Prior knowledge:
2 domains; about 30% strand; alpha+beta; about 200 residues; nine-stranded antiparallel sheet
Amino acid sequence: MGMVFGKICVETPKYKVLHSTALYEIRQYPPSVVAQFTYDPSDLKGDKDGGFAILANYIGALGNPQNTKPEKIAMTAPVITKSQNQESEMIAMTAPVVTREEKGRKTVTMEFLLPAKYGKAEEAPKPVDERVVITEEGERKYGVVGFTGVATEKVVAEKVEKLKERLEKDGYKIIGDHLLARYNPPWTLPPFRTNEVLIPIE
């Protein structure tokens, strides 16, 4: 019942707050290991969250874990999504580097942060589904703004625009596209949901 009212009872990433204002925080995150799935929503009938079941199957959240051990992996929060608009150029995606040339296609990468006990990618169970990639992310710094409710494209776009404006006004250099972090399952009542927009900075 607690999850309906927004109680977060799973592991969340540790971070250090470097600077805080009334409008946003600057956070530094330590290295982490993630499971990710990149896809074109049009291939999944327009479902932007279509990667969730693929990743949930990998960790065993929806039944038997789909990894080679097989080992059930604890769910963590948040679930991260990032969108890429791809034009007619070669774009480096994630590590290991995958390059794609897909004119005018919009892809989404969904990530599950794996529990901190997996310090290296090779320590995590290997996925059965080859579309799931286990990779490491190094230390990184973000400008972050939190919000409640449903993270619709319109709401997220507004939060991103405002955060970019504030960060640039305050002298921060933006070095990549935004991430959307959602901390609650879809059955959580909208007023109790915790969402964040994160923008990478130098």
